[in-house]
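A common beginner's mistake is to predict each chain separately and then try to dock the pieces by hand. The better habit, illustrated here, is to supply every component at once so that their relative placement is modeled jointly.
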Amino acid sequence: MRLRYRTLIPLIIFFILKVNGQDSKSPGIISGNIQTIGQYYQEDTIINAALPEHLYGFNGFANINYQRGDFRAGIRYESYLNTLEGYPTSFSGTGIGYRYLSWNNDNVGVTIGNFYDQFGSGMIFRSYEERQLGIDNSLDGIRLTYKPINGVYLKGMVGKQRHVFMDGLVNGNGIIRAFDSELNFNELLDSANSWKFKATLGGSFVSKFNTDNNTSFFDLPKNVGASSIRLNLRYNKIRFSGEYVHKINDPYPDNQDNRFNYIYKNGEGVLLNLGYSTKGFAIDFSAKHMDNMLWRSTNINVGPTDLLIGYLPALTKQHTYNLAATLYPYATNFYGEIAYQLDVLYKIPKKSLLGGKYGTSVALNFATAYVPERNFIDDMETSRNSYSTSLFSRSDSILLQDFNVEIKRKINKKLKLSLNYFNFIFNDDAVKVANYYKMIYAQIAVLDLTYKINRHHSLRFETQAMWTNEDKGDWLFGQVEYTFSPHWYIAVLDQYNSGNEDLKKRVHYGLISAGYINGSHRFSFQYGKQRAGVFCVGGVCRAVPASNGLTFSFTSSF
Amino acid sequence: MKKYFKYLLVICIFSCDKIESPLPEEYGKFDWSLYPGDPVDYNYDLVNLENNWGPNNNPKSILLEDYTGHKCTNCPSAAQIAKDLEDDSSKNVIVASVHASQDGAFQGTDNIFINNYETEAGNEYVRGSEMPGFLGNPMGTINRNDGGLTNTVWYFGSGWLNGVNNEINSAFPLNIQLQYYYFSQTNGLFIHTETSILNDLSGEYNLVIYLIRDDVVSPQKFNNGVIDTNYHHHSILSDNINGTWGTPIINGAVIKDSLIYNNFTYELPEPSIDSTYYIENLSLISYVINRDNLRVVQVIKTKLSN
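With all components supplied together, the output reads:
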């Protein structure tokens, strides 16, 4: 269904009528932001950068919000003219992609139109936007929130998910019905408010109705439900959170592996986190069991990030340095995984032997993920559960191991140093982000130096090196960035595939970028080559094709 | 507000379909109880299926479904158009007369019109949601293509000739051949098909088999209330051997020269009770549809005999 001005106009009229009934002395507040990126493409056969026939790609959006008293309303205008290369082509055209109206009073909240929300960790329900990935699964419908007494929070919603953008919002056919409740014991019991022990208990139920798939091979469920329970505890410096989710039969077609094709096995997931933090030291341990928890509002084949109801969190660190972030980033395995992560942060005290004059921060991170132990059963002609699993029972098949350490130290008043080391074991046969489809063993070292010339001028050097005998071999990366605050910066960088076995592919990917910042406005451009890679956020990934050309971007808010 | 939340909670909790048997009921399932002897002696090689078959020389044919009714006064003239098209050997048209209407109109029985020729499948085709646009008898489909009235599958009789001509050169991605064994002791009909893929193909395709009575003498109403009690009803759809929408045979991609084998059994009505089910008066119409758009991609007709 395409929703444009036809639906917006009654919303605005309704909104104006409601607002006029409010305090007429307050004109309300208008706020918003805009972000635009345009890229002029050049053909580059060396790096396989294609030249699209439209030559110029443009993605832009602007949010405009209005608030007056308890009422809020807003729209987002989006333009993809033409969609930037690598961005999902399901985003195209220009129009309104998001509109909402909401009000809150007397412990009751109402939202109509589009909204984002999340229950617990999001495994059972997460409606969110990740613009860089081209993900927007906002719910379009009605949401009610209600706080009957202190400490009790109820939330219910019914709606359809945004699927694609074609000159406007286009929803999927599936209908989502969702309910969440949360009990905050400390708020519930007045006397418990001052306790060091804090506890909340939550429960959710989400169901979908969908008839997209009319296969005659299988009797498909039209209504599929999932439920979850979660607990958060905190005592002084120790905190614990746990969540269990369960989903009933929810078969999907799978053309890759017949063992997962239209299986009727229940899905389940467990996410546990235990942490301790004090001044100068923090430790955090997470564990995850996830099996058959792909959870979409459609039961036909769609794009990997389309119409997802639940979010499958990745237990890995979100890397920011170029080689570590874009060559072998981890994408959550939809079939399931057993994963663990340990984070340790320690600040070596200043004026100590190891800490130096200003102290030294050390961050260790270890993450690993395995394929669950699956006992396949011969029932594809009967109940089609396909296999059985046990909680946290893992196989020997590793998906990922990521060990990394970061050391940050201020050498003196002018010089700051950051050293990073990464060690990856990456099963590309399962994760499939590098198109290598075998195990990859890689190590990366990063040296990041910032030299403060004076109060307004600073210079940053960054150099990275990756060593691997697999895939495309070794890489080198270097960057120099000069900042003259508060307005300007310029940077030059180069990536070089120094270890590629094919000498013709030992290519330099040079790039120059510069920007001007003035308050909340930022204008930047970059020119050069960008290699093909993968961009991931939170275990959700998008392939980025190679490109060569000139890119402009502008962001602003008011 | 509390009330709304209660309603929402109730809706959520009961919004689940737990499926215990994912595979749909299999019509025409192979049933040895209809074989009068020891299955070991059965003539068809059920292990090396390809050994049972020679080359498939069946021509590309066109299925014309004539949706009719014995009290429909305009139906005989439409039936004649269908018969004429079938008799034109250059067109390879195969006719199935489907006695069906949306509300039972023209199908009723009384002292004169004793027999009801409706079938569950025929009624589903005109009443269900998958083939919308049926206006009333007589209408027909030509390979269930969407060239009919307002781009539906439904043609008036006046459009059947053009519809057939337009269909003659349509795609011919697969072919079907059929063998059967009939056992009068049990009225058991054992059916075997071989579907050969002529071009690479992808999608979801079903094989449907109609049981046809070739000629049934029974009353038919004409204009001005005239009833011909000796009317020869031609090629009446009498049952679907393997269900309304048939048996899924392709799901996904299949490559050229692939062969797909299917086996069915069916217990024919007792001919001593209803002589129109005498084996020599029966045929099978077998066709393959693209399950997404219902388009018939090939159809064959097999005359049965003892």
